[in-house]
Amino acid sequence: CHSAASLAGGLDLSDADTSHAALVGMPSLFKAGATMVIANDPDNSYLIQKLENDPGIVGLVMPPGVPLQQTDIDVIRQWILDGALR
Q1: Against a cut of 0.85, is the pTM above it?
Q2: pLDDT tens, 25-83?
Q3: How far apart are CA 61 and CA 47, in angstroms?
Q4: Are 49 and 38 in contact (CB under 8 A)?
Q5: How far apart are CA 77 and CA 6, in angstroms?
Q6: What is the largest CA-CA distance in the chain?
């Protein structure tokens, strides 16, 4: 969905470097005032809110269809908590 060819949601997540640049410290294109990934702050990172279907998100839970397992979301949460390093 988020490849260079499709850019779903305006995001190219096709590889680690591109994904990091597109997410960390970057504003959401769809929710004013939201930041995709705030290093050390998973609760306020819009990526986590989208993955967990927070009531304040704009649009659909990500990924659409079958949500990620909580264990997978926890890995992403920990990465953000650890500083969202490349």
Answers
A1: yes
A2: 999 999 999 999 999 999 999 999 999 999 999 999 998 888 899 999 999 999 999 99
A3: 10
A4: no
A5: 26
A6: 31
